[in-house]
Amino acid sequence: TIIIIIFTGLDNLNEDGQTVTQYLAKRKQPLAKLMEKCGERYVAFNNRASLEEKNNKIQELLDLIDRVIQNNGNQVFTNKEIEAISKVVQEENEKGGFIPNLPDGSIILLPQTEKIVVEAYMRRPVLRRDMYMS
User: Fold this and answer.
1) Could you tell me which residues come within 8 angstroms of residue 90 by beta carbon, excluding any fewer than 6 positions away?
2) What domains can you pick out in the chain, each with its CATH number?
3) Structural element, H or E, at residue 37
4) 38-60: b or e for each residue (b if 16 or more CB lie within 10 Å)?
5) At 55, is the secondary structure helix, strand, or coil?
6) CA–CA gap between residue 21 and residue 7 (Å, rounded)
7) Which of 74, 55, 58 is nearest to 66 (CA)?
8) CB 95 within 8 Å of CB 103
9) I need a surface site. Which of 13, 27, 64, 126 has the fewest CB within 10 A?
10) Average pLDDT value over all residues in the chain
């Protein structure tokens, strides 16, 4: 499975005196299975980071994407859900006024994109069952 997990809220972990590595060491079974299926690939974002820190994390994510693509024979796969989400975001951008990131670092998920993601997830009952079975 070619998945990169994006964790947000790293700032909350740090406030609790915990690193993402420490958090993941104590992870519950559903998350452990998902992480295993995606090759332990993840990037954790601090919502309150400075612009420089955010840019560094974005670069880390882009580098990870590049490595995944290289490991996959430089083949990039798209699917209908990604294309549908891209279309919705592009349409919202063309309308103007759409700001995907709030000043506090949180990300706005459009209702249309949320629907696409939920419907795609619901069509994959085998993956859901596997994640929650030990």
Assistant:
1) none
2) 1-77 (3.40.50.300), 78-134 (no CATH)
3) helix 29-37
4) eeeebbbbbbeeeeeebeebeee
5) helix
6) 12
7) 74
8) no
9) 126
10) 79
**pLDDT attached to residue 44:** 93
Q: Give the 3-state secondary structure of 78-115.
A: CCHHHHHHHHHHHHHHHHCCCCCECCCCCECCCHHHHH
| 107 three-state secondary structure | strand
List of long-range contacts for 22-30, beta carbons under 8 Å, 24+ apart: 29/132, 29/134, 30/131, 30/132
Residue 10, exposed/middle/buried by CB under 10 A (0-12, 13-18, 19+)?
buried
Q: What is the mean pLDDT of each run of 10 residues along the chain (134 residues)?
A: 83 90 88 87 91 90 86 67 82 78 68 76 49 42
Rounded Cα gap, residues 24 and 30, in angstroms = 12
Amino acid in position 71: N
Q: Is the pTM of this model over 0.70?
A: no
Beta bridge partners of 7: 44
Give me the count of residues in the chain. Answer: 134
Among candidate residues 109, 106, 107, the one with its CA nearest the CA of residue 117? 109
Determine the pLDDT at residue 45.
92
